[in-house]
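Reviewers asked in the last cycle whether our approach scales beyond single polypeptides. To address this, we selected a multi-component target totalling 1494 residues and predicted its structure end to end. The input consisted of the following lines:
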Amino acid sequence: MTLDRRTFMGSLGLLFLPGTFIPASPAFAVSPDGTLTVGMSSESSSMDPHWHIRTANSSIAQHIFDRIVHMDETQNVVPGLAESWRNVDELTWEFTLREGATFHNGDPVTVEDLIFTYERAQNVPGAIFNLRAYLGGKSFEKADERTLRVITDAPNPIVPRELSTTSIISKAVGETALPEDYNSGKATIGTGPFKFVAYKPGEVIELERNDDYWGEKPDWSRVVIRPIPTGGSRVAALQSDGVDVIDTVPPSDVEHLEAEAGIALGRGTANRMIFLFFDHDREVTPYVTAKDGSEIPNPFKNQMVRDAFDLAIDKKAISARILSGNGAPAEQLVPTGIYGHNPDIPLRDADMAKAKEMLAEAGYPDGFKVILHGPNDRFIRDSAVMQAAAQMLTRIGVEISVDAMPANIFYKRASSGGPDGVPEFSFFLVGYGAATGEVSAALRNLVHTYDKSRGLGSNNRGRYSNPELDAMIEEGMATVDDEKRLAIYRECCAIAVKDVAVLPLYYPISVWGMTDGIDFGGRSDERTLAMDFHAAAS
Amino acid sequence: MDRPDMSIRALPVTPILEVRNLTTSFRGSKGWSPVVRDLSFHIAPRETLAVVGESGSGKSVTALSVMRLLNPRSARIEGEILFGGTSLPGLSDSQIRGYRGREMSMIFQDASLNPVYDVGFQLMETLRIKRGLTQRDAKREAVQLLEKVRIPSAKKRLDDFPHELSGGMRQRVAIAMALACKPQLLIADEPTTALDVTIQAQIVELIKQLQDEERMSVMFITHDMGVVAEIADRTAVMYRGDLVETGRTADVFAAPRQPYTRALLASIPRLGSMNGTDLPQPFALIDHRSGEPVAAAEAEVAAPPASAAPRLSVKDVSVRFDVRGGLLGGVTGRVHAVEDVSFDIAPGETLSLVGESGSGKSTTARAIMGLNRVRQGRITMGDLVAAGEGQAPRSALCDRLQMIFQDPFASLDPRMRVGDLLAEPLRVHGTAQGEALRTRVGELLRDVGLSPEMAARFPHQFSGGQRQRIAIARALALDPELVVADEAVSALDVSVKAQIINLMMEIQRARGLSYLFISHDMAVVERISHRVAVMYLGRIVEIGPRRAVFENPGHAYTRQLMSAVPVPDPARRHLRRGLAVDEIRSPVRPLGYQPPPTRMIELSPGHFVLDEGDAAQPQAKGRPADLAKA
Amino acid sequence: MFASILKRLIQAVFVVLCMTVIVFIGMNLIGNPIDLLISPQATQAERERLIVEFGLDQPVWTQYLHFLDGLLHLDLGRSYIFNEPALKVILTRLPATLELAVMATLIAVVVGIPLGLYAGLRPHSPVSRVIMSSSILGFSLPTFWVGMMFIMIFSVKLGWLPSSGRGETVQMLGADWSFLTLDGLKHMLLPAINLALFKTSLILRLTRAGVAEVLPQDYVRLAHAKGLSARRVTMVHVLKNVMIPVVTVVGLEFGSVIAFSVVTETIFAWPGMGKLIIDSINNLDRPVIVAYLMIIVLLFVTINLLVDIIYTLLDPRVRFASGRAA
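The resulting structure, written as structure tokens, was:
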């Protein structure tokens, strides 16, 4: 039928009318001892604390369970269920259990529980990722009623950090528990600041305060956690008082939430680096050619080329403009405050002219052609970041195109998409963050030469190899003394940066949103813990 | 015995319906255009008025105007309509609704029952709403109504759905619904046009009886003059929205005053008008404007040479269709559509295949054209096999065998110009190109009485009759030897029908063409055929020269067919034929059925009748004397 | 009629089988779930161990046969992500999606049919024109945008309705349903309307087209000629004939509502199956994806069958088509 234009426009106009005239409703204040409602961007996949090491799962687990040692907001090790520990000799550690810690069912925590936990955590049936990576190479013994002895196969300086990943469960309960019992709550008995109340997948997780907690009691008597994956909905929930706190505020909403009365934002620089990786290994790399398409030897094997690339990219601009301030420009493997960070490594300003010069000097006055690969749904604004980087590189004469793809496809190809199962890409965007909260993981997994048998370089998809660096990393790994080790690692970082093994772009800044009346200091491990949020002093 | 004429003669009686200066206009893109102009007529109580006209005459619109069923937004009624003294146009919507279904009822061409409700529901709806009966009373009354319209096993029929009933049954139900409130006026808009001729006869008979029993008036709209003669006391003739002539039926038929009426009457094929002649003869047409005879048609078509080899030879042909059913959809039976049929057609001869729906005549035609697979037997055209073993490819047969179809609107591609339509067969067979092609197309158009300039137009710009001419021209393009005309004139108006028949005969004379003429219209067949074959339930029950078959029908079915044809002679209308309520049977047989061998008895040279032996024959009741005269 | 039902059931089984093959092949081509789930710190040995544990090192057809075997025992494997049987993961979320879908369909029918009827009966009235223009908006506006608008207006600005999540639930027949509580209904209203928008427009236009097709039919004219009131002609004679195609479409659309309510569920954080499938695809949680697709296929086939049966009940012409001889 014929559509009357006026009728159509009129109907359209009717739609927009309501929204303009209605003022926003006022926010309610939260009260201490009340309920804290949290809207989370990702959902925990299980209540079983040993099932999966994901930020969402760990966040929830941390409410209900304690670990033998804990990590504070900047991922420094602090006492947990162990009130003290010491390094007896190169291969032996002893942890002293504190008095008075009990499980939610009243049972006291014993060393047997610890040993059972570490045994079970490595053998959860069907677990995609289990804690063997952190618990392997150790054996656990009962030294006495209050002391746990840990014996390592090789000198291991980060045993406490590694053990801080594993939630302690009760042997009495865990021995007979079925996987379903964790989700139903039957076996979800921990020692943590909150007790399990209910779990409805996709819907809600309810917790209540553990009034017998040995540590600092949280401000809230009840916590309700609701998964709200869409950024816009999460923000809307905060604005409409559906929730008190949200995590991962989308970059586009940061500005107007700052300005909005009744809502405050909290931040923390995450211990994660988003970077560009080069193909250091192959003589000819598949996605780099001369501008006319002919084959050329791999330019990334030349340190000058890599350095030129690093100079060309304006990391400050990317953080400020592409990420709208939700990222801090990166110059090395870990950000400030994380153990191993080298304060002497400067963040260089971008210098296009110099970069072009260096490229010419390296033997590429006309540049070359390269394809930049990366995921398009994994990191915040990853496609945009890649496009920005590409544009910057274009200005030094490199002809570059961007190929962004869904993460699950990307990772498969990045790890083994090439012939004979080697990494496929020549130049790609990827990220790395360690749960152990210090730099050794990055060093041994990212820049150490790939060695499958020894489990080293498992994330070294660029196949960077520097024997000198390798030796130093291995030395550090065996150095138990914290001070000495720090110096070694800082040196390693410096070498890696100088050699431009990777091209760091930024450290993500996690942004939380909360209603007025809540204080929050921020965290570097991207976790959202109800214990961190405090009712503002009235 | 003559019934006393109850129409206006002795006393002035108030007419039940009086229409004065009725003008109905429709709203179009250019404003209001009148479809019915200044119409005036009346219907007396217990009288039947026939409103006759061809398509576009405005007869249906008149009926709808009386019932006020036209959409008031797009139709405008001016003039006066008085029903029993009350002015209908002046009534409000709810008032006129009160009249509808109660005082005046209407039935339509194809019974138009709602397909999703059963018969009982639709019948009882009228009874409950219009007469306020309770459910139980309504049911009882419904059964009685169905019995009144002579439907067998009336009680069981209440649960049937419309699509389960045949056309005739449905019309009876519609009539029953119309009679539910004992109306004073029944308007019947072409109620029998879509029915087979025997069923038509039954329905017309039924309406006559009911009119008498219910003491109501009938306004009977039709284009069939034979039916008019059967049923109407008075007749009104309409042409293009005007009322041309009105008067007592006997007068109109015997002494038509207007040229159009005369032209109309002249073009009616009358059964029996060819008695005494052997060969086909064109209609003696009258120009509808001047009233003078059209340029005298040539004399009769020549007889085909006696000993020439047949052009088409059909031998022992059977066509069967599978019937599927049961749990897994296996074959449970077969429709023996055509059973053991044999005939020949000589050069320059017209053989007509007559029968009603389900007789197998169309299936036979399609088998000849290769559209249906032949189960047994063979069809040959000279040295080529048209169907059966050793079948020649279609393209080889094209220049010998062509077909004309029933629907002039569906058989021409609306997107092609007429010239292209005619050129297509020539181009495909490479017969002519370029300028020669154009000339040929022009010739073809002239041959069928159109002008060569019309080649540039599209089909929708032509009338039904003209389109059928184009179809004939197309069939002639490749200069065939035989043309199959499958109900080629059935969908045309009466006058046009006659013209086309004349045209076909002229072409036959000019080219020595043979026709296989398929029809259910006995009167038309009588005009055009050299020989006639009558089909019933897939078999030929009678075949022979037209004169022999028509004047001396040997098979009971032939006789029944002929007696069912309405006679356009008012003098004969009071003969009640007492026809049975019979449904036309369908030749479905179980698997493995062996048909009895065909044996024909020769009644006279060339005239054969099927020997039924003890097999059941269709019953025709009535006095033998009447039947013989038909 | 039983013959056709039997035939359809056999066809259904065949379709499901084909589905399993297609899904399996498809899943294999996309990516290795290990890469996505495993921690970057995991050793290579760890990786290998997991691959073996999940049977991902076996040839595809072996995995497939395993799966078929499990299918017959109603064991569709365990979710890689949730550590629960895949079937249980899906069925836990089924009630939420189901009640949302039913509510949305109900809204669409209750709003769409009367409006369509009106628009068909009075095509030239100004009200009808507004109705038809609005219906175009109904299926052109993207669900995502409309959903956000709803949240913006009704939750944030007006504060009338909650912005996301499911409200209070009541246990019934072993599952949790939220439509039995007022709070639950409040939570369901916005997502249901959001989901219903497209369907409403569809049903509206379909009804109108149906009415436009039925009105000029002879039996409608006869009904008028019988002197029945306009109301009765419309509601009894016209409506039933119009309903036949509409019912068919509503039935088939219901299946797609259930299967593809992803966008609405994601925006409103509605804990249903739609969101689950997207997450599972992103995470390559193969058992859940496969189980989900199986259930959807069964659902569609069942709905199709039911629609066919209803259609047969509504339209008597179809009912007897197979039974009668020519």
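Chain C touches chain B at residues 2-3, 6-7, 124, 217-219, 221-229, 232, 236-237, 240-241, 244, 314-317, 320, 322-326 (CB under 8 Å). We regard this as preliminary and will revisit it once experimental data from Aim 1 are available.
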